[in-house]
Amino acid sequence: MDTSSEPCKCEACGHVNRDSGVPKCEACGHVRRYRISFVAPGGKAISFGIDTSVGRNTMRRLGEAETVYVDVVQFHLRRNPDGNWFLYSEPAAKNPTWLNGVPLDEGTLLEEGMIVSFAGRLPLKVEMIPEG
Ligand SMILES: [Zn+2]
Predict the structure, then answer these.
(1) Which of 19, 45, 54, 78 has the largest count of CB atoms under 10 Å?
(2) Is pLDDT at 68 greater than 90 in this prediction?
(3) Residue 92 CA to its chain's centroid (Å)
(4) How far does the centroid of ligand 1 lie from the alpha carbon of residue 109, in Å?
(5) What is the 11 CA–ligand 1 centroid distance (Å)?
(6) The predicted structure's pLDDT at residue 95
(7) For residue 46, how far is its CA from the centre of ligand 1 (angstroms)?
(8) What's the pLDDT tens digit per position in 86-102?
(9) Which residues contact 24 (CB under 8 A, 6 or more apart)?
(10) pLDDT value at residue 81
């Protein structure tokens, strides 16, 4: 949503990186930290800044009827030391977690614009929000 060039600027050294998606500054190596946000079809979003497990109670905040397809524990979010986020499906969940229409079978790197769904239900768009 933010279309300014500000997200490309390294908060440590001020170097303007060409690609706002790069987690690491080309000039000084500073690792940009992102929050992961999931945007529902109705426009509501939930975001996470720490490793966490996500299930139905959290998803209810999106105000979507298809939240019923989300299990009590549905997936897990983990951020590695490079600042990249990985998504892991909870094996016990009734509906598998899909990424871009493909069931997850191991931890998968999350990128801006990916679509997370639960066997095709409740499609959520991934947005990466730079931390200040
Ligand atoms: Zn830098």
Answers:
(1) 54
(2) yes
(3) 21
(4) 23
(5) 7
(6) 96
(7) 28
(8) 999 999 999 999 999 99
(9) 30, 31, 32, 82, 83
(10) 83
